[in-house]
């Protein structure tokens, strides 16, 4: 299999500021029940959503998907993504049955190289979850798109 050409650095840096369509997401009780159960925890009181929902709610609610995020950064394969970090900020608890407005954008995108001189593109995504115009949570995801330059 022939490796894909490495995207031009200017193509990657131009991703900074890219806006996802945005949209809405409501965590139903059944979804929270299943997510919480998968963590081995008990349901949180007063319909609070388990924080693990921040892995998928911001992405889906912003009108995108992991596959689309891979494609945006021109991932060479599903295995070429390395996770740098997931940073979750919660300003108020997420609650079941509340419809949240969600926006998302590429916060930064740059070409880098590691100590061995291997290229990767570092792309930082930021998603914000709001209830009635009040910021409830923020999810910042940073991925490395490794590049095969052989």
Structural commentary:
This protein has 150 residues and is of the alpha+beta class. It has one domain: Thiol Ester Dehydrase, Chain A, CATH 3.10.129. 19% of the residues lie in helices and 37% in strands. The protein has helices spanning 9-13, 29-39, 57-61, 66-72; strands spanning 23-26, 81-90, 99-113, 119-131, 134-146. A five-stranded antiparallel β-sheet has the order 1-3-4-5-2. A hairpin with a 5-residue loop joins strand 3 and strand 4 (119-131). The chain is elongated.
The average pLDDT is: 95
The CATH architecture category equals: Roll
Please tell me what the overall shape is. Answer: elongated
Major sheet: size, sense and barrel closure?
Answer: 5 strands, antiparallel
Instruction: Give the strand order of the largest sheet, numbering strands 1, 2, ... along the chain.
Output: 1-3-4-5-2
Question: β content, as a range?
Answer: 35-45%
> End-to-end span in angstroms?
12 Å
- Low-confidence regions: none
Helix content: 10-25%
CATH topology: Thiol Ester Dehydrase, Chain A
**What is the H/E order?**
HEHHHEEEE
């Amino acid at each position: 299999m022939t490796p894909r050409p490495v995207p031009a650095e200017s193509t990657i840096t131009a991703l900074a500021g890219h806006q996802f369509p945005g949209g809405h997401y409501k965590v139903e009780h059944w979804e929270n029940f299943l997510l919480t159960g998968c963590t081995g925890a008990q349901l949180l009181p007063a319909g609070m959503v388990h924080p693990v929902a921040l892995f998928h709610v911001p992405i889906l609610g912003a009108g995108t998907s992991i596959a689309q995020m891979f494609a945006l950064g021109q991932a060479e394969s599903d295995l070429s993504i390395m996770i740098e970090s997931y940073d979750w900020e919660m300003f108020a608890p997420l609650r079941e049955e509340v419809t949240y407005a969600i926006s998302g954008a590429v916060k930064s995108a740059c070409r880098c190289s590691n100590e061995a001189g291997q290229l990767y593109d570092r792309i930082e995504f930021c998603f914000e979850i709001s209830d009635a115009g009040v910021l409830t949570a923020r999810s910042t995801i940073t991925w490395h798109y490794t590049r095969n330059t052989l």
